[in-house]
Amino acid sequence: MVRSALRTFAALALIFVIASAAAGRSPVEIISSSSGGMVLRYVPGALVTRPVGLEGREYAEVTVAGTGRLSVPGFPELPVVRVVVAVPDCDRVEATVVTGGTERERALRILPAASIVPGGEGEVSSYAFVEGDVYSSDGLWPDRAAAVDGPRWTTTQRTVAVEFYPCQVEPANGTLLSHGSIEVSLSFQGVRDHGTPRTDLPRRESLLRSVLLNYEDGKAWRRGRVGRPRGRPDDYFTTSQNWLKLTVTEQGMHAVTHSDFQHAGLGADDVDPGTFRVFSGGGLPVPANVTEPRPDWMEECTALVDDGGDGAFDDGDRVIFYALAVDGWSAELEVEDPDESYYENRFANDSVYWLTWEYEGTASGFESGPRRMAAGDLQGEPDPLA
Fold first, then answer.
1. Which pLDDT score, from 0 to 100, does residue 206 have?
2. How confident is the model at residue 60, as a pLDDT?
3. Are the beta carbons of 119 and 126 closer than 8 angstroms?
4. 68, 73, 71: which is closest to 164 by C-alpha?
5. For residue range 340-351, what is the model confidence (pLDDT) as tens digits?
6. 345-360: burial string, b at 16+ Cβ within 10 Å, e else
7. Is the dihedral angle over the CA atoms 343, 347, 351, 353 positive or is it negative?
8. What span, in angstroms and rounded, lies between the C-alpha atoms of 318 and 305?
9. Phi and psi for 179 in degrees, rounded to 5?
10. Contact at 8 Å (CB) between 270 and 312?
């Protein structure tokens, strides 16, 4: 239980680090760094213990200057410093933790972290300070003075999150350990070389600059973007100059007609129907954990171009494709580890698809041909869209 509670820090680490970076310089220093490993050193600020009376029991509240809180319900509330560092693309990162200047203080019962107690209908939630099983267990909590999570991808950068614990506690006997220094040595195992590193999109560079302790050094360990169509320029929607946004509310077969082009104010007569493509981002919300990878580009959908066989896009012609709504069966939407078999999107009512094309005499920016469905793939007679 102790180990699993500590591993939850990854989802919050980047949020905390962004706030810390905005507030000032990190208290963690990089002593040395190479493609084989890195040494981080943290010297905690002043330790303060304050007596707190709670439900007839005396606790000690522990704070250290320049830190946040672990905030694991049922466990002692202890200070923490979180950083995220760039590392080479590797199979794993091994960590060695060394502490110095450690002092012990006895007869302290550390205040437990607050748990949120949901209120009833029309009531406000409240906080409860409840001791978990760790208060009767032997040994230190946390079991080490630092913990490492990763490596994982943050856009095109391989990163690890490191937590430093200036204090550890033996809850059963009330002993508090405070460290004068904590040094973490990271060893990179199974390093891979991706060749010449690339600069990311400006908005992603801004994220990495605000998050990473070693932003400048980390540039040398970047990899190229994965999953984009070959030959596509670095920014979105530059493979073609022509894009039409389509909103879908219901699952099923949909069509964009020659008349739809005219009503949208688009030139339709010179369109090359052989260049029609339909793309979708999938419709699911992006992961809540900002360290998880985001889709780098949309997926191309299969489409049927019904142009009468004359190679022109004119009256009565249409582009047919199958679309999913934002709500639907989890298996169809490819929801990972669904809690329910039917998924309801809490953030959107419409699913978005994109139609792109070229005009006659204009070269396509895509190297491969468009994805097509055969007329026999359509279900229903004589017209599934009727």
1. 82
2. 93
3. yes
4. 68
5. 677 677 777 788
6. beeeeebbbbbbbbee
7. negative
8. 6
9. -100, 140
10. no
